[in-house]
Every structure is written in C-alpha cells, then in structure tokens.
Write a structure and sequence with these properties.
With 120 residues, this protein is an all-alpha fold. The chain is 60% helix and 0% strand. Helix 1 packs across helix 3.
C-alpha cells in the first residue's frame, strides 16, 4: 500500500469521526505539520504513531490499510467543508460550485485522484 493511500485512509477516518487535526495531534503527541504530512503521504508514519492514532480514534490499525474507495459527492463536500472550515456564506457558494462539478463529472474518482487530495 502506498503512503498516500494510507494517509488518505487515516484522514478520511479522522474526518468521518469528526476529529480535528489539532485534537488528534494533542492526544497522540505529534505536531500538526507531521500529521498533515502523514495524511498527504509525504512522510512515513511509525508503528507507534499509527498505533496511538488508531487507539485515539477507537479503530483497529487495519482500518488504515483498506483499499481506498470512491467518495460519494456528499462525502467529498463534507470533506471539503471540514478541511477548509469555510464560513456559512462561503460554504454555500463553494458547495454550489462543488455540487455542480459533481453533476458534470460524476462521483467515480478514487480518493487519491480526488480534487481535494494534495499534490505529492
């Protein structure tokens, strides 16, 4: 499994559980910069870090090694809003644009191909 796939799975699980990066970092003792790099797949995560993250999130480590699946339009929108924490008016404008794009392009992109995935 690639580092980016592992990082994407970790990030999606964190967001699914509504856990902010800052909260996770404080609980497991890593910097926000390090977590961001782990989630982007630009650094290797240690077994200890992965174990601590899994314990804090209340999931088995194996959860992070599952094959990435396609995100639904609703999941992409939730991911976008959560990650960028836009204000109410900005959210509405951005959400409308994103939903329009989903209607045009469909929802078949894999997580690592997502427009919200950061370039490696």
């Amino acid at each position: 499994m690639s580092l980016s796939a592992l990082g994407s799975n970790l990030r999606l699980k964190r967001i699914e559980l509504d856990v902010a990066q800052a909260a996770l970092c404080g609980a497991v003792g890593i910097t926000q910069s390090r977590l961001s790099k782990i989630e982007r797949g630009s650094v290797k995560v240690t077994a200890e870090e992965l174990g601590n993250i899994a314990r804090f999130l209340g999931v088995p480590i194996a959860e992070f090694f599952r094959r990435p699946r396609a995100l639904t339009p609703r999941e992409r929108l939730a991911l976008y809003i959560f990650e960028y924490e836009l204000g109410p008016l900005e959210r509405q404008s951005q959400a409308t644009s994103i939903i329009s794009a989903f209607e045009i392009y469909g929802s078949g992109l894999l997580v690592e191909d997502s427009p919200f995935a950061e370039a490696e």
